[in-house]
Design goal:
The complex is a heterodimer of chains A (435) and B (237). Chain A is an alpha+beta fold. Chain A has 2 domains: 184 residues, no CATH class; 130 residues, no CATH class. Chain A is built from 14 helices and 15 strands. In chain A, the strands form 4 sheets. In chain A, strands 6, 7, 8, 9, 10, 11 and 12 form a 7-stranded mixed beta sheet that branches. In chain A, a hairpin with a 6-residue loop joins strand 2 and strand 3. In chain A, helix 2 runs antiparallel to helix 13 and helix 12 packs antiparallel against helix 13. In chain B, 33% of the residues lie in helices and 27% in strands. The N and C termini of chain B lie close together (9 Å). With 237 residues, chain B is of the alpha/beta class. Chain B contains 7 helices and 10 strands. At the A-B interface, helix 1, helix 11 and helix 14 of A face helix 2 and helix 3 of B.
């Protein structure tokens, strides 16, 4: 009964001072809107990171031959092992003898049968294009083994992967993207399979027969190399040996990737792999050793950093909210001074201190909640727009909405209490005589 | 006054001091004895600075006396706590102020309902009661008007209806016609007479106007914190 009466009073008081109430609410509106928008963007980015983490193969280990460092340190930020080099020394370039051979890779693979699903090696041939009549497509040619094709995690739309024979015989076969098919075969995949394309790369032209078509997916974090879909440079996959033949390189590898099984512990395997090579094949190599890294640890830290960043910005938004709350307190003080006579009259009519206090606290809460709701609407809208620009569109989480409503109520109570209490403690005689 | 009437107000040796314990200590009331009987229409007159406002505040339970005892309708006000004083003001006293003191931006009926609301009366009953009272004071056709839409006389009539809301033991009117012209002042005074005669209300009128005081049954004059005169007025029975 009293609550309804107080709500009615609060609303009519806000209505009769529209401009002032709006300005008072502004602090709350801005604070709540920014908290919600920031939380939404933060959630969106985290979701995106997690998604690209799995698509990029965060569990993959990347192993490469590097110069022997002067020291090995542990990075504070990511907790990774970092190789330290002396900047003044000119390091040797590795020769074929220092690289990984196919036999070493096999031995490594056999050493960890439960962890290693596949070993991925590739050979970059280079950027090029294919032309036929007035048709044209941009592409880059990469040769890979089965492990590499698997690690790319693309979706085969039509056709097949390479056969063992094609792999070992360095056949002129390729897997192209649907964009190439769209450009060169008018999107007809059936026609594309088995057809030949001429690829100009590094000033020479090569002919490959298409065995399969994969679906091109935009890499979320990579820069788009073109605005128009038809101009996008996509990868043409060829067998590793075919690529080696084109680049005239020997069949050794400076680096390779390992695709780990789902159960495998990335951190442990990173350490084991390092030991396997550095305590084994490279133990007596004076100039070179092996470095191992994975994206998993980095992604984890990146996610953590994102969380911290979101929290940090939220705290700043929270300060805006605090300032807004002080604004509410200020206006409540003014309002109470203006209404001193009313307070005196109410007391003369039998209002207790508690009911006067309740009246003004409720007024402060109503101001804050209205501000909170407006801020929430703005924040949700702003979050949607921002996430559309930044990445995956995301909606404001229910928790952020609940937090903001709870927060604005709390601000109302906290910053309303002092003025309301001041009103409640007014001496009715003084208040009645107040001019 | 032949037969024994019920005492509504019984004040004994009321003393009020301000700034107690400081060099500026000031005794405003110096020992007031006052009895007001049920159904009486009493005027308290005095020049400004005589202590009549302080006496009114004590009668109205807005303030407590420094010394002395005050029994209002059987309740010992001098010993009441703050919360109890709120209840006493709500149930026992109907205030009418010189400046009306209607709550702004709140219509006539809501203003009249206010003491009922603080008294915990349910919405339906208080609406009913407020309507009746506004009709009694001749404001039945303006119950939804806001104070700023009413003339001074109309505001004072709404204020009187509000003072009557909880059927108080006394109506305490502080210069009720002070801000009104003589014509509307007359209407307001006639209303007090009507409430006194028809409803048997006990009314205490505080004024500095001898003519208005003359209309009451009994006139008490205050000077320098003491009752210096008591006589029957024109309306004496």
């Amino acid at each position: 009964m009293m609550l309804m009466e107080n709500l009615r009073l609060a609303l009519s008081s806000i209505k009769s001072n529209k401009m002032r109430s709006l300005l008072t609410m502004l602090g709350i509106i801005i604070g709540i809107a920014s908290v919600i928008a920031i939380m939404t963007v933060g959630n969106s980015l985290s979701a995106e990171l997690t998604e690209s983490m799995s698509s990029l193969g965060a569990k993959d280990l990347n192993i490469s031959v590097v110069n022997r460092p002067v020291d090995i340190e542990t990075d504070d930020l990511f907790g990774d092992v970092v190789y330290v080099y002396d900047e003044d020394v000119e390091y040797k370039r590795p020769t074929d003898d220092d690289y990984f051979t196919t036999e070493i890779l096999e031995e490594y693979s056999n050493a960890f049968p439960d962890d290693v699903v596949a070993i991925s090696v590739n050979e970059q041939v280079g950027n090029g294009e294919t032309k036929q009549d007035n048709k044209h497509a941009n592409l880059s040619v990469i040769g890979g083994n089965y492990g590499f094709l698997f690690s790319q995690r693309f979706k085969l739309l039509q056709g097949r992967y390479f056969t063992d024979g094609e792999m070992s015989e360095a056949s002129k076969v390729c897997i192209v993207s649907d964009i190439v098919v769209e450009n060169m075969f008018d999107g007809d995949m059936d026609k594309a399979i088995g057809s030949a394309i001429n690829v100009a790369v590094n000033g020479k032209e090569y002919t490959f027969y298409i065995t399969g078509v994969y679906e091109y997916e935009q890499d979320t974090f990579a820069f788009t190399n073109s605005d128009k879909r038809k101009d996008i440079n996509t990868i043409v996959y060829i067998p590793i040996r075919t690529a080696k033949a084109i680049t005239h390189s020997s069949s050794v590898y400076q680096y390779f990737s390992v695709i780990l099984s789902m159960e495998s512990d990335v951190d442990a395997m990173t350490e084991n792999t390092r030991k396997f090579f550095n305590d084994g094949y490279y133990a007596y190599n004076e100039d070179f050793c092996v470095d191992v890294y994975s994206m998993a640890g980095m992604m984890e830290s990146l996610n953590e950093m994102m969380g911290t960043l979101t929290l940090g910005i939220s705290v700043i938004a929270g300060i805006a909210l605090l300032v807004g709350g002080i604004g509410v307190m200020n206006i409540m003080m003014v309002s109470i001074t203006e209404r001193t006579r009313e307070i005196g009259t109410r007391k003369a009519l039998g209002a207790t201190n508690a009911s006067i206090r309740a009246q003004f606290i409720i007024e402060a809460i109503v101001i804050c909640i209205i501000g909170g709701i407006i801020g929430m609407a703005l924040g949700i809208g702003l979050g949607m727009i921002l996430t559309k620009v930044v990445g995956t569109p995301a909606k404001a989480s229910l928790s952020s909405v609940l937090i903001s409503i709870g927060f604005s109520t709390a601000i109302g109570v906290f910053f309303g209490y002092y003025p309301a209490n001041k009103a409640a403690k007014l001496d009715p005689i003084v208040a009645l005589r107040y001019e | 006054m032949g037969e024994e009437k019920k005492k509504i107000i019984e004040m004994r040796d009321i003393v009020k001091r301000f700034y107690i314990g400081t060099p500026n200590e000031l005794e405003v009331l110096c020992g007031i004895d006052l009895d007001v009987y049920e159904g009486e229409f009493l005027a308290i007159v005095g020049a400004s600075g005589s202590g009549k406002s302080t006496l009114m505040n004590i009668i109205g339970s807005l303030d407590r006396a420094t010394e002395g005892s005050y029994i209002l309708d059987g309740i010992d006000v001098s010993k009441a706590k703050d919360e109890e004083l709120s209840g006493i003001r709500n149930k026992k006293i109907g205030f009418v102020f010189q400046t009306y003191n209607l709550i702004a931006k709140t219509n006539a009926i809501k203003n009249v309902e206010m003491p009922l609301m603080y008294g915990g009366v349910a919405q339906k009953q208080r609406n009913q009661r407020a309507k009746e009272l506004l009709e009694l004071v001749g404001m039945g056709d303006r119950i939804h008007h806001l104070p700023e839409e009413l003339s001074g006389g109309q505001k004072q009539r709404v204020a009187i209806a509000r003072a009557m809301a909880n059927d108080p033991a006394i109506i305490l009117a502080d210069e009720p016609t002070g801000a009104l012209d003589s014509k509307t002042g007359r209407i307001v005074m006639d209303l007090f007479h009507k409430l006194h005669e028809e409803q048997g209300k006990t009314i205490v009128l505080i004024t500095h106007s001898p003519e208005l005081a003359e209309e009451c049954q009994r006139i008490i004059t205050i000077k320098d914190g003491l009752i210096v005169g008591e006589r029957e007025g024109g309306a004496a029975v």
